[in-house]
């Protein structure tokens, strides 16, 4: 066996030649050009969100002189903050291979709760009306959003209800509750009364710190926290492992059910924060607010490069996706495009993003399946080396689990 292995190694070296620097065959020029073409195509696919955003800025800057003004950029970024908060919460759910269709309804319900509390809570039994302060109303509204997310997580993780079905049902329940609380009417005038101590709610929507809207700063803070969690914490590694292969992650000791519940909780919290900011900006709370926003959130995640199958996606990419959606929508309004055409354009962008996702993630998987189907190369004595033999005998490097399943590195996660 030893002589056979040596002969095989000699034959392989003679057939392939040395692989040192500069030891390239006659066809190396063509392969180098092929690699350059591959690198360019990879760059275009992986950087699609950034390139799309740059293209949108250039096109609308040429079509409208007001698009790139500082005031307009701040206004558009304020609009993007709502979409970005929803998309970042959705990202965590998508990373586990799930979906949350209730984010738009949670946004509207949280806004209604904030408005209901600020307008006064009548206690007919005692003949009094309570007027909570703004911080109390905001915290209760956001906490209720987290509770809705927890219910979604329990349905999915503990009762094994399909995420699509569980969150679709919650979408109708939460939206119906908001309509019942308001009788379908919008709660107006949330500025409060000085004597009741419930003023200042509009701060979240109109206040600027160093010239930047408060909602944008909240969006940036949430993005920073989530990026650090995904890239630098054990929970982030658990989350990617759950999305990559939930069964393997569970066998490896990952608390898959707990991770699943918590990602839905975070999604609910992000939706509630977005709802409070929206209500503060409008100084009113509508029970129909956030209608179809769940589709916008999914679009931001997909355009940002996340895989709907789970296990791949970054906060950075999702932010870019939200900016693409927001800037495209506002740019079309600015140049006077009909609202019907806006829907067509945004839908086309989503379709293209899904196609590029298929190219980015489907290609490697197809190649991996094709390679797995090939028979292993046999030695001169007809015996094939078993899988992983090099790792066990010291003949070659072992492949790490993260490399085998294609999980992103900590740098890629941020």
What helical percentage do the residues reach? 55-70%
* Structure annotation, total helices: 18
- Mean pLDDT, rounded to whole units? 81
Strand order of the largest sheet: 1-2
Shape verdict: globular
Radius of gyration: 27 Å
Pairing-aware structural class of the strands and helices?
A: mainly alpha
Question: What are the secondary-structure elements, in order, as H or E?
Answer: HHHHHEEHHHEEHHHHHHHHHH
Tally of strands: 4
The rounded distance between the terminal residues' Cα atoms is 49 Å
Provide the β-strand percentage band.
under 5%
Domains, number: 1
Which residues form runs of ≥5 with pLDDT under 50? 1-30, 375-406
Biggest beta sheet summary: 2 strands, antiparallel
Word description of this protein:
The structure is a single chain. This protein has 414 residues and is mostly helical. Helices cover 68% and strands 2% of the residues. The chain has 18 helices and 4 strands. It has a two-stranded antiparallel ribbon with strand order 1-2. Residues 1-18, 370-388 have a biased composition (Low complexity).
């Amino acid at each position: 066996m030893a002589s056979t292995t040596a002969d095989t190694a000699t034959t392989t070296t003679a057939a392939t030649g040395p692989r040192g620097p500069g030891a390239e065959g006659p066809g190396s020029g063509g392969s180098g050009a092929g690699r350059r073409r591959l690198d360019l195509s990879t760059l275009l696919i992986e950087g699609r969100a950034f390139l799309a955003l740059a293209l949108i800025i250039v096109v609308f800057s040429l079509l409208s002189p007001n698009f790139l003004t500082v005031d307009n950029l701040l206004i558009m970024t304020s609009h993007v903050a709502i979409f970005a908060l929803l998309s970042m919460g959705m990202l965590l759910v998508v990373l586990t291979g799930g979906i949350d269709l209730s984010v738009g309804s949670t946004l509207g319900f949280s806004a209604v709760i904030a408005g209901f509390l600020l307008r006064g809570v009548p206690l007919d039994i005692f003949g009094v009306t309570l007027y909570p302060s703004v911080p109390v109303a905001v915290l209760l509204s956001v906490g209720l959003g987290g509770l809705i997310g927890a219910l979604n997580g329990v349905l999915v993780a503990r009762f094994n209800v399909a995420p699509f079905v569980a969150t679709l049902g919650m979408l109708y329940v939460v939206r119906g509750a908001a309509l019942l609380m308001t009788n379908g009417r919008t709660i107006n005038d949330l500025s409060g009364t000085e004597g009741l101590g419930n003023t200042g709610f509009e701060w979240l929507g109109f206040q600027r710190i160093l010239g930047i809207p408060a909602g944008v700063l909240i969006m940036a803070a949430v993005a920073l926290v989530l990026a650090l969690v995904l890239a630098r914490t054990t929970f982030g590694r658990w989350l990617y492992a759950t999305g990559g292969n939930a069964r393997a992650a569970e066998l490896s000791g990952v608390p898959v059910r707990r991770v699943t519940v918590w990602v839905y909780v975070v999604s609910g919290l992000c939706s509630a924060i977005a709802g409070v900011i929206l209500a503060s900006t409008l100084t009113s709370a509508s029970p129909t607010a956030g209608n179809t926003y769940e589709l916008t959130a999914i679009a931001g995640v997909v355009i940002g490069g996340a895989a709907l199958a789970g296990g791949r996606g970054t906060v950075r990419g999702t932010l870019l996706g939200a900016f693409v959606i927001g800037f495209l929508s506002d740019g079309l309004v600015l140049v006077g495009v009909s609202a019907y055409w806006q829907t067509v354009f945004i839908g086309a962008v989503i379709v293209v993003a899904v196609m590029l996702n298929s190219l980015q993630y489907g290609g490697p998987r197809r190649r991996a399946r094709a390679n797995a189907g090939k028979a292993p190369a046999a030695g001169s004595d007809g015996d094939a080396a078993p899988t992983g033999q090099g790792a066990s005998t010291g003949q070659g490097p072992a492949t790490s689990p993260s490399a085998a399943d294609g999980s992103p590195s900590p740098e890629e996660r941020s």
